[in-house]
Amino acid sequence: MVKTELAILVAVPLSLSAFTFGVDDPHGLDTVYYDTVTEDGFFTGGMLQLPMEPMDGLIRSGVGEVTTLLNNGPNANRIDIVFVGDGYLESELSSYASHSNVAMAAFLNIEPFTEYQGLFNVHRVDVISNESGVDHDPYGTYRDTAMDMAFWCSNIERLLCVSTSKAWGYANNVPSADVALAVANSSKYGGAGYTSANVATFSGANSAATDIAIHELGHSLGNLADEYFYTNDTYTGSEPSARNASTYDATTMASNGAKWAPWLGENQSQWDGLVNTYEGCMYAAYGIYRPTNNSMMRALGRPFNLPSAESFIIEFYKIVDIIDDATPCCVVDEEAVVFIDTLDIAHPYTITWTLDDVVLGEYESDESVDLSMLTLDEGYHTLEVDVVDPTPWVRDEDARDAYMSQHMQWLIQVIAPACPADINGDGTVDVADILAVIDAWGPCPNCDADINGDDVVDVSDLLGIVDAWGDCS
Length: 473
Ligand SMILES: [Zn+2]
What we know:
This protein is of the alpha+beta class. It folds into 3 domains: 7-16 and 322-414, Immunoglobulin-like, CATH 2.60.40; 29-317, Collagenase (Catalytic Domain) (3-Layer(aba) Sandwich); 428-471, Type 1 dockerin domain (Orthogonal Bundle). The protein has helices at 93-108, 164-171, 209-220, 250-256, 306-319, 397-403, 431-439, 459-467, and strands at residues 7-9, 29-37, 43-51, 63-70, 79-86, 120-127, 179-184, 191-194, 199-203, 229-234, 278-281, 283-290, 323-326, 330-332, 337-342, 350-355, 358-359, 368-370, 379-388, 405-414, 428-429, 442-443, 456-457, 470-471. A hairpin with a 2-residue loop joins β16 (350-355) and β17. α1 (93-108) crosses α3 (209-220). The longest helix has 16 residues, at 93-108. The two termini are 18 Å apart. The structure holds zinc ion (ZN).
């Protein structure tokens, strides 16, 4: 008979994703979006290139408490959003806490953040400034604050900029932080999204602050373009990289399959509007299209549209791995239960286990396989698992394969025992092994006392013991 004496399991994660802070430009320029709100509720602003400050990974001291506001698991495999405040005195930390709480509640309440809330941790670092308020609020006023936040950056009134290296210095008080949300102690309209630095800014005390914060996350986390435009401008650039802006009209998109071609004609209630191509996007009225008539990348109080949601979800999975924990590699015994632990989102992952390329049907939606339930022949076997996020909010199947799927495999080596007659495994074939045969006498498939593997424990097994009598280590 064959006994699973040694099972070697090797974990091979094939789709490890890592999140790095790159730069848009080798010369160290970052694309920065800036936004404010018009009287009729539309966003207005623009985009420019600003020099990128070095991300030195230093942790700045001089902070009060670091508070985790939402905890969904270990930071290393979560999207960690960190609030850092500027222009708050120690006596104003309670209003900073309230500004942060309002912004957090707002973005967790909008899709796709609600569905994917389990991927996020949210933290607040109590940064204390020497003076209250930020620069140029009002114009010409300068204040000594921790992160140098200022309006009128690059001579643009609503460009609320921040020292990204200082913002990260404070955000780094949270290990493995991914996105910094810099909150200005101000009620003046303004905000900015630094796409490479992964920093967004907003005014904590502004009535539109939460929507500006969400909109800026669209830039910094979702890699989204602005969908508003100015009359008479014609777009002359190349095809944008953002998934929610395109130079192709619907007819072209339908034939070349680019951008949001899979979404044309879709209209789902939780997302903003009928997907088509609407001329006017990225500050130009002509020559460039947005996916829906309106959306959070265009106006206050709107949901995101489907192509934007798809972009967010893909970006989320560039930061986290679906499999949060799993059976480690190497030696397990034949009774081992091989497991994976997936992230908690609001819908189930599709989990497929295969053994030697055959799907183990009964395990399909489970997170573990009990090896003792399998009959494994002598030799090598491969146990594999494939986990996929099947969300219908993503139709870019290449991106789903690249970022929203994970594969692991384990090698199981099954070796026949060197001395099958040593039933109790004590290194000697002796009277105790004879007694084990007598105990198991009769039909007995798969049992250790069935030395010759004919599914019956009988006199031929007793003879096998006599043949092997003595030391058998
Ligand atoms: Zn914007």
